[in-house]
UniProtKB/TrEMBL annotation:
InterPro entries: FTHF_cligase-like_sf, LUD_dom, NagB/RpiA_transferase-like. Gene3D superfamilies: NagB/RpiA/CoA transferase-like. It comes from Rhodopirellula maiorica SM1. Residues 106-203 form the LUD domain. This is YkgG family protein.
Length: 205
């Protein structure tokens, strides 16, 4: 009976070491001609239009006090038990996330009210900076999501959006445009499969 020879990783490690030690200079990023990118006569109107086509709803408001009034007319908000507000000047939440260390404790959150840095007219997305999120899961675990963003911080397209982000302030940040949806199973559209079931966006001055 032949004796099995133990496998050796010496050759493989030598290859990996050579790859690790080799400095490869990649091609630089392309220069974007911003004057040739898509521009809109009314970017706010375009944002509202695009957000509507993907299932979200936008509200143009003049004062943050209107947020509570509008949300109060939505039954699933009026009946909500656990609301996390990261925009306390607009909405007083019923759950203090500062006292929560384990994100699993947020599994039953009904609403998250988050703050957006800027919005993109081209695709109806809002950039949410991770530094504003005590737990990043709040954007995805809540049944319903509302984002407050200034309409003065509207950009026309994603080229401008990424230029605006530059080097992110924190390791986490995300473009949000909702609600979550999938049609993988029998081509049947399901909302809220991987995130919020509905998205409300409040466009402040």
């Amino acid at each position: 009976m032949l004796k099995k020879t133990p496998a050796t990783t010496t050759s493989r490690q030598a290859v990996l070491d050579r790859l690790t030690g080799k400095h490869v200079v990649g091609p630089g990023l392309p220069t974007v001609a911003f004057d040739q990118t898509v521009q809109f006569d009314d970017p706010v109107a375009k944002f509202i239009e695009v957000l509507s086509t993907v299932g979200g709803q936008a509200h143009v408001i003049d004062d943050v006090e209107q947020i509570g009034q509008i949300l109060g007319e939505i039954p699933v908000y009026a009946n909500a038990k656990r609301v996390v507000s990261l925009v306390p000047e607009a909405i007083a939440g019923s759950l203090d996330v500062a006292t929560i260390d384990d994100p699993h404790a947020l599994a039953s959150v009904d609403w998250t009210i988050a703050r957006g840095e800027f919005a993109v007219a081209e695709n109806g997305a809002i950039w949410v900076e991770g530094a504003t999120m005590p737990h990043r899961v709040l954007l995805f675990i809540a049944q319903y999501l509302a984002i407050v963003v200034s309409r003065s911080q509207m950009v026309h397209n994603l080229h401008q959006g990424y230029a605006r982000i530059g080097t992110p302030k924190s390791p986490f940040g995300v473009f949000v445009s909702g609600p979550s949806k999938t049609a993988d199973i029998e081509q049947s559209l399901v909302l809220g499969a991987h995130g919020c079931r509905a998205l409300q966006v409040f466009l402040t001055p």
